[in-house]
Structures are given as structure tokens and as C-alpha cells.
Design goal:
This protein is globular. It has helices at 37-47, 74-89, 95-98, 107-114, 123-135, 139-147, 168-181, 192-200, 208-216, 226-235, 243-250, 254-261, 268-272, 290-296, and strands spanning 26-32, 58-62, 154-160, 184-189, 286-287. The protein is of the alpha/beta class. The longest helix has 16 residues, at 74-89.
Length: 302
């Protein structure tokens, strides 16, 4: 039986509704490319939202997937968001899940299970749970995602430009799909670590050679590209960002990163580039992630 579901929490995820007394006006649901760096960064943004001027009724949730889920192509990032939207809109059992469950499990049995009304020690319940595990359906997390909604929610994806892996046509197709479906698209060229770098250095003081090296972003070791190594050397972390590092290194510098990002070309087309020459295929160095923070800091209807 194929593992067909990707949304799952391999750890105890933070339930935002435990700390919310009023119905949120907006939750920004993000599907991100990295399963460590990006997710950790945005989880900390949510945790320390009060210190960042994020409106009380606005929250951010990064969609979780299994640790071993390394599907990070732009199409996979978009797929994860759309899997969430299917679950969000479906009041019952997702159609894909029902199609792989044997007929001996009635709708009544399934609904009772989902409402936690059955004895977890019952053999039939254990057998049913093994089927859910085999197809990768995380009941607790998916039920949470179905129930936790704001009044004016936003759905978006966070992507690296990464011209070595993602073609211009591939990126433009994703951009078109996002525009068509009214999803927010946040891109950083060459990769998310450049957004982190904007917290750490004065972009105006970089030499032409340094800017060129960031744009080309060659791999310089098994762990690092040129840009990620710059971040690692300054901030003292690799892919994983600890809470201590976030508090010491990034939290107070987010507005600085925002101001620096606005100095660069932040248009989606410029970040993606053009399929003309090897140079234009790289896209322009920059990011539009400041738009995400602008979104979090307003409680006006969109």
C-alpha cells in the first residue's frame, strides 16, 4: 500500500489554539521547502510574535511533514499546501484515505475512531491504526488542521530560487499556479540562507566578488554552499536553528533584514530570472519575504 499522505507531525506539534482566547482573524499557513531551517525559523517567529509586532489576531503555522520527507522540489512544496487545503475543506474522511481502507471498516466505525470513542486496545482499532500508519495519515495532526481556522486565512509557499535544481520554466509555472489559486509565493534568490544572511551583515558592504559568489552559490562542502557557509560562520549553526540561536542572532535583527531586502529587486519575475542566458537563468539576488512580515503585522481584511 503506497504511503500517500505527507502532512504529519513526528513530534508533539505546538497547538496554537491552546494559547488563543479569541478566534483568530487570520492564520498564515505556509508550506516550506526545507524541513529544518525554514520550519524552525517560522515556528520561532510564531512563538515570539509579540516581540515582532505581529497583530494579536494574526498567527503563522508552518505545515509539518515527516523528518524523512525530503521532497523539496517546488511542485512538492505546492503539493503539501494543496494536501492541507483538501483536508481543510473535507468535513469527513479524505477521499484518498477512504479509497484505501477495506470495506469492513464502516463509516460509523471510522467516525467513532476519529472522535476517540473507541477502545484503543481493541484489536480492530489496532488493525485500523496500522492501516492509517501505512498510508501515512496522521489522525491527530490532520484533525487539528481541519479544526484550526481563522476568518481570513492566507495560504502560501516558501521557495529557494536555486537555479542549479529549479529551471526558470519550472519556477514560472509554480508562480502561475500560485497566482491562479490566490496563494502567496515567497522566493529567495539564491536560497533561504540569503534571507538569514540579511540579518547578519550589511549588504551594502559586500564586494562585487562576494555578491557574485552568493549569486552563483557553488557548493563548497558536503554540508554547505557558499551562502550557507557565510551564515554558518557568522551565526554558528548549520541547517538546524536552535531557539537560543534564534533569540540571540535573528529575533532582534528581523526588521534589519526586512529593510535590507527592500533595497534589492523583490519582484517575483526578477527573482526567478529569464530563460535567455546562463546569467539571466540565475535570477536576481533578493527576496520578497518582507511581504510575509507585512502580512503578519496587519489585521485588515485582504
Amino acid at each position: 500500500m503506497a504511503n500517500t499522505f505527507r502532512l504529519k507531525s513526528t513530534t508533539m506539534f505546538s497547538r496554537m489554539d491552546d494559547d488563543i482566547n479569541e478566534q483568530p482573524l487570520r492564520i498564515v499557513f505556509l508550506s516550506v521547502e526545507g524541513n529544518k531551517t525554514e520550519r524552525q525559523y517560522f515556528d520561532y517567529v510564531e512563538k515570539y510574535r509579540g516581540k515582532l509586532g505581529i497583530k494579536a489576531a494574526v498567527h503563522i503555522h508552518t505545515l509539518q511533514r515527516a523528518k524523512r520527507d525530503n521532497l523539496s522540489a517546488p511542485e512538492n512544496v505546492l503539493e503539501l499546501l494543496e494536501e492541507y487545503l483538501v483536508i481543510r475543506k473535507n468535513d469527513g474522511l479524505p477521499e484518498r484515505l477512504r479509497s484505501v481502507i477495506p470495506q469492513r471498516y464502516s463509516e460509523e466505525f471510522i467516525n467513532c475512531y476519529l472522535r476517540s470513542e473507541l477502545n484503543p486496545q481493541d484489536d480492530k482499532v489496532k488493525e485500523f491504526e496500522s492501516i492509517l500508519a501505512e498510508v501515512g495519515y496522521d489522525v491527530v495532526y490532520n484533525n487539528y488542521l481541519k479544526e484550526f481556522k481563522g476568518k481570513n486565512d492566507v495560504f502560501g509557499i516558501v521557495l529557494d530560487r536555486d537555479y542549479k535544481s529549479h529551471s526558470v520554466s519550472q519556477m514560472k509555472k509554480i508562480a502561475e499556479q500560485c497566482e491562479k489559486n490566490h496563494y502567496k509565493l515567497f522566493i529567495t534568490t539564491p536560497l533561504f540562507e540569503f534571507w538569514l544572511l540579511l540579518h547578519l551583515i550589511d549588504i551594502d558592504k559586500l564586494s562585487e566578488e562576494e555578491l557574485r559568489n552568493i549569486k552563483v552559490n557553488d557548493g563548497i562542502s558536503e554540508k554547505h554552499t557558499y551562502t550557507s557557509k557565510m551564515v554558518s560562520d557568522i551565526a554558528g549553526h548549520s541547517k538546524s536553528i536552535s531557539e537560543k540561536i534564534f533569540l540571540q542572532t535573528y529575533l532582534s535583527k528581523i526588521d534589519y533584514a526586512i529593510s535590507q531586502s527592500k533595497k534589492l529587486n523583490t519582484a517575483i519575475d526578477a527573482l526567478i530570472g529569464e530563460d535567455k542566458t546562463e546569467e539571466t537563468k540565475m535570477g536576481n539576488i533578493g527576496t520578497n519575504l518582507h511581504e510575509l512580515f507585512e502580512l503578519l503585522r496587519t489585521d485588515k481584511d485582504l
